Amino acid sequence: MSATTAGTGRTRRRSRGAVESSTSARAWAKTALLAFIFLWCLFPFFWLIMTSFKVQGALNSANLFDGPFGLANYRNVFNQDFHLNLRNSLVIATMTTILCVVIGSLAAYAIARLPLKRKILLLTGVLAVSLFPPVALVPPLYELWRTLGLLNTYEGLYIPYTSFTLPLTIFILTTFFAAIPKELEEAAKMDGASPFKTFYRVILPLAAPGVFAAAIIIFVSAWNEFLLANTFAPRDPEVAQTVPVAISLFTGAVDFQRPIGSITAACVVVTIPMIIVALAFQKRIIAGLTAGSLKG
Amino acid sequence: MAEVATESRTLSGPGPGERPPRAKGVSEKGLGRLFVTPAIGLMVLVALFPVIYAFVVSLRAYTGRQYEGFAGFENYSEALNDDKFWASLQFTFTFTVISVGAEFIIGLGFALLMNQAFRGRGITRAAILVPWVIPTVIAAQMWFFMFNVNPGFINSALGLGEFNWLGESGWVKFAVIFADVWKTAPFVALLLLAGLQTIPTDVYESARVDGANAWQRFWHITLPLLRPAIFVALLFRTIEALRVYDLPQVMTGGAFDTESLSMVVQQYVVKTPDPGLGSALSTITFAIILGIGVIFVSLLGRELVIGRKDQ
Question: Quick one: which H or E segment has residue B63?
Fold first, then answer.
């Protein structure tokens, strides 16, 4: 973490010098290339939004600016119970985030700061779980959930999500905890605080930005999960069908034809808040993502 | 890398003997054990146990979901004689090699470009998160319609008329891989950019003084120092690509030889239920992916350590 931040400052200083020394033609070429990256990332969404507002015959036209435009697609989406899918995804992703943050921050603190036997073995195990293909769990968990009655329930999804996102959570949070100055804990200990109180009162508040970064990343990965959701809760939006499953299954007036209007409208409904979150918290998310991966 | 730092920090801390008088509450050792137990417990229960259970189930015979007795390794021989399995293995490997390769090259290009600060850098850094944040299912639907003959956006942009990308065996793979590269190349760029920013500036300055040109600086300084970040990006991307499910499932439903390993396994769970065969396939998939992960870590991990000693 701290290394990354320091690095940014250093790079900025160096590159400013580089830009001054290079010719303006070169600077322009770089800006053009940067614009290409920008368009690469965002242009498909412009296509998506334009298409979602097209109605009737306009949907068959390749030209993005061919009308007529209207809100019919959005009305269709919510007539198909999409708000229930949004509710299900929200509950499942929130539960996953809470469980992961609580369980993960305890484990990460222990790994970063507390005396623990076989720490390397523990970290290797965590890394191994992060390499697990989720599909390996699909047949056994399906049988298990069927016996326990957990198919088509929230629990049936957020429990496996939590265990799958825990490794990443632990990697991210261990990095953040390790970056907190050790003197603060020593001071708390001197004042006679118990180890638990030190964690709870001193460390946790200081790690809040890191915990927040981890929480966003967990939420996004739970919100986006498709394989388990499509297997354990494939139908009923009333019960536990999530947003990605609904978007993959939207049906139109004609069978076997994907309704481009409703699908793009549903995609826009889901995408806009996520883009806002990404833009609003980009620094935190990037810090979390790079902390988590550089750790592995 | 941080692992090592954590470790040494703990070791250099005060030993148990030199601690100030014991405070009230649980001891540090007890607290450590208490804190890691829920995480380990959950991972063992929901990740390790099912994998073992899958192996047990894979040794049983079923008709539909009806248990018929012990089968030995029959499910495995059935799986290994299934053309579908080999076809999916081939597609999964093709997908992984091409998409990870393309993502690495494009991601590295993006990262190198963004590492040189100039106008528009901040906004590009923000934009680069957008493909990462949206669900893969949405990316799949979006690119399905962009490639599709109707409305034919890509065809009209490239002047291709009625070319059926999603109906031609080779090109449908291109479409799926393209969608994956679009979604994950920016993420790879993000990881590599973080690595680039840890390279100290003075190394470049002294190389410049010694007369190294831009290519020499890239080849002899940037690449070797970037090795840890490259390793991490390649490891996680390879493992993720081998698990691919969302994109081909939504874009093609597995048509024209685009069925991935994950799709084949999932099919035996719900569509044509056979717990025995499904578990055998999932166990094989697990072994393949974990095996590749272990080879990766042991080969490149050693490389990483040697590389670090050189410096």
Answer: strand B60-63
Q: Is the Cβ–Cβ distance between A275 and B130 less than 8 Å?
A: yes
Best mutation target among B4, B24, B28 (most A Cβ atoms within 10 Å) is: B28
Asked whether the beta carbons of residue A295 and residue B132 sit closer than 8 angstroms, the reply is no
C-alpha–C-alpha distance, residues A52 and A41, integer Å:
19
Helix (H, G, I), strand (E, B) or coil at B60: strand
Chain A residue whose CA is closest to B5: A178
Residues A263 and A247: beta-carbon distance below 8 Å: yes
Instruction: Report residues of chain A scoring pLDDT below 70.
Output: 1-22, 251-256, 292-296
Give the one of A10, A142, A230 whose C-beta lies nearest to B201's C-beta.
A10
**Cis amide bond preceding A244, omega within 30:** no
pLDDT at B136: 92
Return d(Cα A232, Cα A225) in angstroms, integer: 12
| Interface ipTM | 0.82
Q: What is the CATH number of domain A81-291?
A: 1.10.3720.10
Give residue-wise pLDDT tens across range B105-143. Answer: 999 998 888 887 667 777 888 888 889 888 999 999 899
- How high is the pLDDT of residue B95? 93
Report pLDDT for A95: 94
Say how many C-beta atoms besides its own lie within 10 A of residue A291's C-beta: 25
Nearest CB to A41 within list B151, B186, B268: B186
CB contact under 8 A, B35 and A167: no
The mean of the pLDDT values for chain B is 80
Closest CA of chain A from B108, distance in Å? 12
CB B225 within 8 A of CB A39: no
- Higher-scoring residue by pLDDT: B272, A215: A215
- Res B164 pLDDT > 90: no
Say yes or no for a CB contact (<8 Å) between A286 and B290.
Answer: no
- On whether any CB of chain A is under 8 Å from the CB of B295, the answer is no
Cβ–Cβ under 8 Å, residues A251 and A31: no
For an interface test with A, give the residue of B89, B197, B203 to mutate (most A CBs within 10 A). B197
pLDDT tens readout for residues A133-168: 888 888 888 888 888 988 888 988 999 999 888 988
Beta bridge partners of A69: A54
Summarize pLDDT for B4-44 with one digit per residue, the tens.
444 344 444 444 444 444 445 667 788 888 888 888 888 88
One-character DSSP codes across chain A: -HHHHHHHHHHHHHHHHHHHHS-HHHHHHHHHHHHHHHHHHHHHHHHHHHHHTB-GGGGG-S-TT-S-B-SHHHHHHHHTTHHHHHHHHHHHHHHHHHHHHHHHHHHHHHHHHS--TTHHHHHHHHHHHHH--GGGGHHHHHHHHHHHT-TTSHHHHHHHHHHHHHHHHHHHHHHHHHTS-HHHHHHHHHTT--HHHIIIIIIHHHHHHHHHHHHHHHHHHHHH--HHHHHHS-S-TTTT--HHHHHHH---SSTTS--HHHHHHHHHHHHHHHHHHHHHTHHHHHHHHHHHHHH-
Bridge partners of residue B169, in order along the sequence? none
| Helix B169-196 and helix A282-295, axial crossing angle in degrees, nearest 10 | 90
Per-residue pLDDT, A251: 65
